[in-house]
Amino acid sequence: MFKVTPEAFFGTTPADSPARALVAEIIISFLLMFVISRVATDNRAVGELAGIAVGMTIMLNVFVAGPVSGASMNPARSLGPALVMGVYKHIWVYIVGPVLGVMSGGFVYNLIRFTDKPLRELTKSASFLRSISPSHKASSSKS
């Protein structure tokens, strides 16, 4: 609708190297998905505080990763301005990073959520995966 000059680009591009921006996008997307999964899907969470928890996570992500990657956390948030302005510099970072971060955040949360043990017991051992593996159960039952 409006003529936007190239100097007024409102999209996201990496401020530093694309590798740092990719790592930042993966981490902040992971954190956001982990928090959303916790407050929105778990009945142990206080539902009234879900919006505050998600909003504070986004704010923290923007403060930490904003100077490095622009803190997109959403491929559409970067792809839309890139299409409008025709600036596709390292756009792959903003497609790959959030997708990997969200998938891993959901996976890790579900892995923690569906165990029978409380989180404090999972973090005591060096690797809780050893304690739930079939070979460990078989060897501990023989003893």
Question: Which tags fit this structure?
Answer:
single chain; about 140 residues; mainly alpha; Glycerol uptake facilitator protein; elongated
Task: Give an account of the 3D structure.
With 143 residues, the chain is an all-alpha fold. The protein has one domain (12-142): Glycerol uptake facilitator protein (Up-down Bundle), CATH 1.20.1080.10. Helices cover 67% and strands 0% of the residues. It has helices at 18-41, 50-69, 75-85, 91-113, 119-122, 128-132, 134-142. The mean pLDDT is 81.
Query: What is the 3D form?
Result: elongated
Radius of gyration: 20 Å
Question: Can you count the helices?
Answer: 7
Structural class: mainly alpha
Low-pLDDT ranges: none
- Count up the domains: 1
Structure summary, number of beta strands: 0
CATH topology: Glycerol uptake facilitator protein
Mean pLDDT: 81
What string, H for helix and E for strand, traces the elements in order?
A: HHHHHHH
CATH superfamily: Glycerol uptake facilitator protein
Content of β-strand: under 5%
CATH architecture level-2 label: Up-down Bundle
Helix content: 55-70%
- Report the major sheet: none
Distance between the termini: 74 Å
CATH C-level class is: Mainly Alpha
Family: Belongs to the MIP/aquaporin (TC 1.A.8) family.
Pfam families: MIP
Subcellular location: Membrane
Keywords: Membrane, Transmembrane, Transmembrane helix, Transport
